[in-house]
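Bug report (template v2)

What were you trying to do?
Predict the complex of my protein with adenosine-5'-triphosphate.

What happened?
Run completed; filing so the output is reviewed.

Input:
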Amino acid sequence: PQIDSNSSKKDHAVPRKIAVLTSGGDAAGMNASVRAVVRYGISKGCHVYGVYEGYQGLVDGGDRIRRMDWKSVRGWLSVGGTSIGTARCMPFKTREGRLRAAENLVHHGIDSLIVCGGDGSLTGADVFRSEWPGLLDELKKANRITEEDATTYGHLTIVGLVGSIDNDMAGTDITIGAVTSLHRICESVDSIGTTALSHSRAFVIEVMGRHCGWLALMAGIATGADFVFIPERPPMEDDWESTMCAVAHRHRMLGKRKTVIIVAEGAIDKSLKPIRPEYIKDILTDRLGLDTRVTTLGHTQRGGSPAAFDRILATIQGVASVDAVLRSTPETPSPLIGMTSNKVTCGPLMKAVELTHEVAKAIGEKNFARAMELRDPQFAEEFNAYTASTILDDESDLLPAHLRLRIGIVHMGAPAGGMNAATRTAVRYALNRGHTPFAIFNGFPGLVHGSIEELTWIGVDGWISHGGSELGTNRAVPGEDVDMGMVAYQLQKFNIQALMIVGGFEAFSGLIKLNEAREKYPSLCIPIGLIPATVSNNVPGTDFSLGSDTSLNSIINACDSIMQSARSSRRRVFVVEVQGGMSGYLAVEGGLATGANTVYIPEEGIKLERLQSDVRHLMALYLDDDADKSEGRIILRNEKASKTYTTDVISNILKDEGRGLFDSRTAVLGHIQQGNTPSPMDRIHATRLAMRCIDFIEQHTGAALEKAHLLVAVVGLTGAEVHFPSVKELVPKADLANRKPNKAWWFEHRDLVDLLSGRGLFTPEA
Ligand code: ATP
């Protein structure tokens, strides 16, 4: 085979030359973005250069600016930090430094620069672009570049990717690295929780975030901390110390044995006075007599190996940044690649930087409402969800007695991370509103047996981080596997006035049946909200279901270990079987996050022709590898991708056809994919959806008959918004036979998996 991994068939006469650098504080996922820029850039016929040590590499030039090839980024997806290095570079802040940087870029013939960093780095990039013509002029006059160079490189394209653990950038809902950082924080807080519980201690935990409370707030939600302090929303009371103590005391009186307070490093009171962890510790010790410790999490928060979310985010944004380079003209302002409502965006970079600076300004001016407004739209909602569901209210949120409801909570289908978190939030929020929450154990069969018990505030303590299902979950569908008459009878007997179901596709099927049966059984004419929870992410009416993020993280952890084994054994291809039923979500997103060679999914099926082409592709890759440094590779196969080409069959075909070039093994991940502790994203989604489910129930209680069809709904996440599509509305949008929605947003990622594994580039001649 003729392979040149530095060029592609699509090579232009004059290829674009793109440099990529990482700058500012390192963030997990930066490597994934560099990998995507390099590989996607090469696939588009560009020459891609890595600039080592951030802007310092631009200023220094020489071998700090290196041409990257396909293999130079192999294995980078799972590596934390940034392998091309980052630095805080003072010389780049000076014109002389930027002059040298410009000279180096011109000497390498580079016309575009993709910068992955925080607001400082992106400001620097924009300054560089705006000065570019002047810099070239000066270099030309000083004979440091030729006249021709000055004309050829008259325009520098800049594209920004936001790599920052703080999630402090406007123009994007989420930044590369923030979610991984949250993973590390939650792991630490969960660990601290066990010692706090054992000794009945209080812990004050400081997390990063000078002007941004995203990490602190999300960690507070995801770990069920008793109180959080963030810069954008300081406590509004003069005497916040007493409020905090009252809350901690109320929680203790109910039986809590631990107190956890999370403080952002930039936390302040309303007069801008810093709130320091040591001070909080003294208050808790002196006023409540709590044995209190302070823990500063520090650099563990930088993250290590990226979470699945960051690998995928960085990959699709890296791809988008190359597309933005290729689209750009001298007239277009420098773009920033963001993510809004689960969609990659491309907006003006400097506007985003200006808005980001406005947050700090608003805080400085004590305009906290504005500071909250400048954050992504969910931030304020999350803050309210946190206070309403975590802090035991002092009765101010109680509804009048006639509006209080008896709410049943039931889990359905297979266990999924976040089921317990949703239940815990629903219980606490419901109690704050005056409702009475009931646990229905073991799904609908449990209801029929009358396994119903009132849930208490302390009874669900700690559930936020528990995997599986505390209530017990069951696949039995009412009306199919369980007698609907008995369901209706028990609901009436226990006077259940609303239902919150947490589950996957079975739950959706159950919802349809319950809706249909309402004409016959008046006790079913109650608001019923379904919180989607299944690893397969196949519930119609939502972009995400609880448990799917936890599952992806389990898959990447398993695949990282498998990859290590494959790499060590050399020339081994693992066919890894993942769950998902008839939905290829886990295979595709898992494939993107692990750098799989390809994925087999039910949406496409498997044909012999495809297998032949995949074998040829693998042969080309292995022929191109250095004999003794050959790589391991993985392929993800969804469990239902094909009846004929099972995981074993595919692996055997690869073994036979590999002809000594490569060998194959299988790994069936099975129930490991349900995960142990739920991921922070699943916990956060669970909190938000559960609270909104209770709101939905309240709003639809006693609905007029003509609106009765709205009573039964999925509490779904569409982009960043929570919607309540009714089951009636969703049935036409569902493929009931194959148990999935007709359309899946993630399907557009499918081809990227193949593209980033070199399909099209590494094709042997016949
Ligand atoms: P983090 O979110 O981790 O703080 P950041 O990108 O904001 O990341 P900074 O230290 O502010 O981090 O900036 C990183 C580098 O970007 C600086 O060391 C400097 O080289 C460059 N830079 C920052 N601001 C400017 C500027 N106004 N002009 C030129 N270069 C700048």
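What did the reviewer find?
The longest helix spans residues 119-141. The chain is about 40% helix and 15% strand.
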